[in-house]
């Protein structure tokens, strides 16, 4: 490993005190603007990374987990995977929910730096480039799980094979004979939503079938989003005979819409979820769904973060863990008439 | 507020250095045994409480949450309540699952003290008296949610009205005409289990009915525990006509056992859960259950902890939030034959 640039070397080169360099690093405002720029340019040129204090690696060391959907079993399974690995490594895990984007960027960053967190895992909650850059300067590595957008190539990320999952769910329904398959994505801007929809389309293309029109909706991954989307599809003149619901909670909303419209699942409406949360096997009918290894995704992200904290390089910045279709009782051939 | 004893006063009285007092406070071993005893006696007599360093109260300050059932939606709802309040107060929340009791007591305590955590909330995970005493000496307050045993009177605790919940569930089933009501508790040693069972018995007594024999089981609050308990009751010569399942996940296990034994819910077997987790309204039939305000219990515990951290006294060390019966479709009168 090349010798690291020290803060003292930066101070000498910039002809300022060590404490001034430190202030720039820590984003304090009481530094003259041209001094700040000169110091920052040197920090950037020399690729300075803040040295983690030795005492941070012992008892009391922390990593952060920021999670958008802390209020769903989905987020919980990721959390348990992260916690397990952090605990084994003797690291305390600071958990934050995203209450608003503004809160995440400014206040969270200040707190994270103040408590000397070793690194952070971000779930469904991307950082703006400025925040990412500040973390980079402080030498605080991050790992993204299910990034909002495709993460930049230099950001470590862990996800599931969403394209393959969307493909498998749709292929299963096509195989049963469905030709008008509705689909409910998550929020439209999410990378995982786009990958699942791409899988849905690719399965149609592979079977030589046209993509049905007018039966694509976007939801919020929660029960109410699935309910609204399914209601709007079931009231169509030509409603779908099957719905790929995009999440298990969406699927529960689809079940409720089916009850409201008097459509029996699966004989009059097939439903496929995504996630395989624990309740998927307890519902009636038990839910056919695409399983994501959420616990393992959390654990993998945590192990990746530990490697980055330890200064190791990664074989691949981006990892996708396999999804698998779990066929239960909510899918059947469409009615023949 | 009376002036606090300082560490320097203790050192003078004990005729030792400040650093020796500090070592005793922090549990270091390199202090002669009789010196340690002399210092400790003075610390106890003067009611010394470690002063929290001012910098801990600013950015980067932490509180701890230790949770036994991190792998269930139950724990998640508590977590979201705690997180919301901690976040509003600008405190980072360190979340630990209990992987083993030994790990909790020793390693967790070391880490908590090393990271200067302001206080801790313990969910279903009591501390042994020694650990509690060490936290007290360090001036680290704790709040217990659903303590394993009744917490000592000087420990702040938050729970739900488990007795009233068990009573309401049983009264509802008795009112429908059931006379042989099975009951599945959580782990036998838990205070909440005992309170719910006491409610079950009291409802029988209030109705002038004998407590049925041979239909009490203990579970683990998870699906498999409910399944096993229900199987063993349904294979009795005189099986119950209704089961108060003790948790919603237990109730899902009871549903599965009912399917295995070909007993329709609710016409051949009524089922009542406890918790009202989100899936309770998605199951078929939708589950009648006793709602616990889990999110609010977490938030209340966090607010209580903040008051203790701020040096305020509590009106009551123990708080019970109200449960309420939510009647859905899993309960009905027993078959008349």
TrEMBL record, chains A, B:
Report the SUPFAM superfamilies cross-referenced here.
Answer: lambda repressor-like DNA-binding domains, Periplasmic binding protein-like I
- Which superkingdom? Bacteria
InterPro entries annotated for this entry? Answer: HTH_LacI, LacI/GalR-like_sensor, Lambda_DNA-bd_dom_sf, Peripla_BP_I
Q: Name one GO molecular function term.
A: DNA binding
Q: Does the keyword DNA-binding apply?
A: yes
Q: Which UniProt keywords apply?
A: DNA-binding, Transcription, Transcription regulation
Give the Pfam families listed for this entry.
LacI, Peripla_BP_3
**Is the keyword Chloroplast in the record?**
no
Give the HTH lacI-type domain ranges. 5-58
- Name this polypeptide is given: LacI family DNA-binding transcriptional regulator
